[in-house]
Write the structure tokens for this entry.
Amino acid sequence: MKLDRNPFTHAIAAGEKQIGIWASLANAFAAEVIAHAGYDWALLDMEHTPADYMAVLGQLQAFAATNTTAIVRPEWNDPVAVKRLLDLGAQGLLFPMIQSVEEAEKAVAATRYPPRGMRGVSGATRATKFGRVTDYTDRVEDETTVILQLETRLAISRAEEIAAVDGVTGIFFGPADIAADIGHLGKPMHDDVWALIRPAAQKIIALGKPVGTLVLDPVFAASLLNEGFSFVAAGTDAAMLARAADATLAQVKSGLTTP
């Protein structure tokens, strides 16, 4: 049995636009609801959700039956967490709050087996279909997506050096934390935020490295993809549910006749 090809890794390397969705509800049933929508990629978030490893396992199983690549964001740049998530079969990881070349190198090393890294070896894991995938160790580096998230002005100032680290698949800009870092907490769409992100993104794109982000505005998401961003998540499941619930209630209330 051969290792499955990761379509997302190869798509962004080829410059193909990839539309994503953020899975924040930390639940396999909720993941299955969005899994069949047809997004190119989905981010299973552990950093800002109650998700644990069993929750992520259920989410990965929900996406396994679809063509959507499931990327996991661990709580931190922790090689132990990375090892466990890769053994669970995560096809890629998004590392939060990368601030330096050294932190980037640590993230990559956590995804690599010795002598190129520090990932521990275990044969009978979900990632290897419990020992049945015969070429796993030969091909896993080429298939695993390694994305680094830049979330501060300092990180953005080092974006090109971080992007150049061997083994980095792409760079992700976190507008919410960037906004907080520059004094615009709660305003990820502020002009100052994107005045930082856009030039840095274009420099990385010029180096041939894919860039991505998360925004909650589908129109803005499309504009970023048209500017050269390779992978953009256009919303979160939690926000979509909240907005739909609010809109439905408001619509019913607006249709009520006065008693």
